[in-house]
Amino acid sequence: MAVGAIRPGGRTARVRAAVLRAAGDALVEHGYDHLDLADVARRAEVGKTTVYRRWGTVAGLVADLLTDMAEHSSPRADTGSLIEDLRANARLVQRTLADPRQGALFRAVIVAAACNPAAAEALHRFYAVRIAEWAPCVEQAVQRAELPPGTDACDVVRAVSAPLYYRLLISGDPIDAAAADRAAEAAASAARAGVYAPASRPN
C-alpha cells in the first residue's frame, strides 16, 4: 500500500507509526551503524517478520523515517513578504534542531549519510522535498519584484537553514530564535543583492 493510501487510524498506520518511533529512538541511542531491524521490532512490539517484509533493510527503514518526518513537518508559510516567509522557515528549522530528540535524530541521520550511500540518498530526497516546498516563497518574491529575476529559489532556502545546521553539527553554539532570525535576514539580504541570481553577478 502506498504511504498516501494508508487509512488513518488503521492497523497498518499504527504499526508504521510504532516502528518508525522505535527506529528513531534506536537511531538516537545507538547510531546508524548499530540500527537493527530485530531490535526495532522488539521496541515497537511488532513481529520481526512484519518489519523485514515491509522495510527489508535498515536503509529502507531510515528512508521511510525521513519520509514520515517530511509528512509531519509544518507546511510552508505564505505571508506575502519574503523576509517573513524566510523567518518562518528559519524558525521551523530552529525549533526542530533545538528539540532534544529531533535534533539528535537529525544529527544521527546526517552522520549516517556521511558514510553510507543509502542513508545519504534518503537524506537527499528528504531535503529535496522540503526545499521544493519552500521554494515558492522565493519565486513569489521574484514575481513581486522583491528579488532580481533569475534568483535561484532553492539556493535561497538552503542559505536560510545552513547556519543553523552549522551550529548543530560544527560549532555547538545555541540554536535559538535570534540565530534563526539572523539566518533569514542574511539570506534575504544576499538574495536582494543578486547573490543568487546568476544574471546579476559581475563577470
From TrEMBL:
Transmembrane segments: none annotated. It comes from the Bacteria. Gene3D superfamilies: Homeodomain-like (1.10.10.60), Tetracycline Repressor, domain 2 (1.10.357.10). Residues 13-73 form the HTH tetR-type domain. InterPro entries: Homeodomain-like_sf, HTH-type_TetR-like_transc_reg, HTH_TetR, Tet_transcr_reg_TetR-rel_C_sf, TetR_C. Keywords: DNA-binding, Transcription, Transcription regulation. It holds the Pfam family TetR_N. GO terms for molecular function: DNA-binding transcription factor activity; transcription cis-regulatory region binding. Residues 36-55 bind DNA. This is TetR family transcriptional regulator.
